[in-house]
Amino acid sequence: MPEHLDVVIVGAGLSGIGMAWHLQDRCPGKTYAILEGRDASGGTWDLFRYPGVRSDSDMQTLGYRFKPWTGRKALADGPSILRYVRETAAEAGIDQRIRYRHKVVRAEWSTPDARWTVHIEGREPLTCRFLLMCSGYYRYDEGYTPRFDGEFGGPVVHPQFWPEDLDYADKRIVVIGSGATAVTLVPALAESGAGHVTMLQRSPSYVLSLPDEDPIATALRRRIGDRRAYAIVRWKNVALATLLYQVSQRLPRTMRRLFRAGAIRRLPAGFAVDTHFNPRYDPWDQRLCLVPNGDLFDAVSEGTASIVTDEIERFTPRGIALKSGEDLEADVIVTATGLNLLAFGGVAFAVDGEEVELPRTMAYKSMMLSGVPNFVYTLGYTNISWTLKADLVSEYACKLIRHMDARGYTRAVPVRDPSVSERPFLDFMPGYVVRSLHELPKQGSREPWRLSMTYMLDVLKIRLGRVDDGVLELA
Fold first, then answer.
1. In terms of pLDDT, which residue wins out, 287 or 102?
2. Most exposed residue of 125, 389, 393, 460, measured as fewest CB within 10 angstroms of its CB?
């Protein structure tokens, strides 16, 4: 007989560790394991090791609700975040529940048995009552690199797989991209010894400078202690981020002018701001790029970095030929061109012998799928910190388990209402999402099938709302 557990958590990153903490806290009698396909915990923060890797959200909201972030920097570097995640796991004994090199490839639900059979690559299967997916949303084994004609004579590196031995001292580096990774890499490389760094972008992104330290958080910690200060600053930052998002959505022209004015203040007189920092899309149609203390603007102003807005014709032995006819010489090319989306870690699902086709399912409360029993997934916010949603999903999963235990239920499945019309799974349209929408579930036109990106409303609906809402079938 396979080993049976009450709960299986897939993924030992930020979300999976948080889910395990909540499970131990709220459902202490449950047996569980975290299955991690790689040989280390930390997820994103262990995988990405390129120079300057850091959060693009403040740590008062990217940190867990239950564990105050006490680091000096609000926009923290990757190694600091990894230590925080692993410290959380060690303090609660969660690290002893992680099973490394356990890659889940398939999960099959049986209604008569009221359990999942979880198939693991190269290992014996497990069974469980609840399956909690905390695997993130992109492929760990490959990044996205568009096809470029021609061949370059030097190294071509994707940030997702940064070589430890890459020598870029005094080298000319071209970073292709304009997203969060590119705006992090460019100043970091410029500061750490590169000869010159050029950010080559097809089109600009909105770039917002923020201080990497929060003086309010520092002052409050001195006065009232870490835990109380953390709660106050967390809500302060949620309110500010929500306000920025809502104003951007409602007054896009005004916010475009403000972002443009901010860039002008940080750049040399006469800099072509409208060419390099004035996107084609409205604010928050894609995620904003945050730069701590304006480091990208500083690198450009100091001449250690530059920005070229153009399209690539082809690679050449000495660099990149641009469609404008110019040649961009390089010793190293970095393709910060994005991620490949991978829903639920690429796991295949079946319910009572029938394969689950994800595009035919609909997302319930942004954390369950229609027709898929005893299954909860974590997908963080795109407009504020991921962990805010991850904490709420963890709380809901525990609330659901406790509710079912109290009433003797063995199965919980959202039942789709045929009158609810379909919409794309995400209202967020960066390239990596657009490329994969056809492979994802749908969201609906109304609650509880509609994707929510407002944390304060979700607190009311998820933390304080009812489990038995007439849509979730409990039996």
1. 102
2. 460
Nearest CA-CA partner of 431 in 345, 339, 358, 309: 339
Q: How far apart are CA 27 and CA 399, in angstroms?
A: 9
Burial zone of 99 (CB within 10 Å; 0-12 exposed, 13-18 middle, 19+ buried): middle
What pLDDT does 367 receive?
A: 95
Q: Judge if pTM exceeds 0.90.
A: yes
Cβ neighbours, 10 Å, residue 113: 11
Which residue type occupies 464?
L
- pLDDT the model gives residue 431: 72
Are the C-beta atoms of 279 and 203 separated by less than 8 Å?
yes
Range scoring the smallest mean pLDDT among 108-117, 265-274, 278-287:
278-287
Are 2 and 128 in contact by the 8 Å Cβ rule? The answer is no
The answer to whether 72 and 42 have CB atoms below 8 angstroms apart is no
Q: For residue range 179-235, list pLDDT tens digits in order.
A: 999 999 999 999 999 999 999 999 999 999 999 999 999 999 999 999 999 999 999
Q: Which two tokens stand for residue 351?
A: 């319910």
The amino acid sitting at 380 is G
pLDDT, one tens digit per residue, over 151-188 is: 999 999 999 999 999 999 999 999 999 999 999 999 99
Task: Give dist(CA 451, CA 428) in Å, integer.
Answer: 11
Q: Do 164 and 321 meet the contact criterion of CB atoms below 8 Å apart?
A: no
183 to each of 12, 113, 285, 290, 297, how far by Cα in Å? 27, 51, 18, 8, 10
The answer to whether 442 and 424 are in contact (CB under 8 A) is yes
Tell me the C-alpha distance between 204 and 351, whole Å: 44
Euclidean distance between CA atoms 267 and 255, whole angstroms: 19
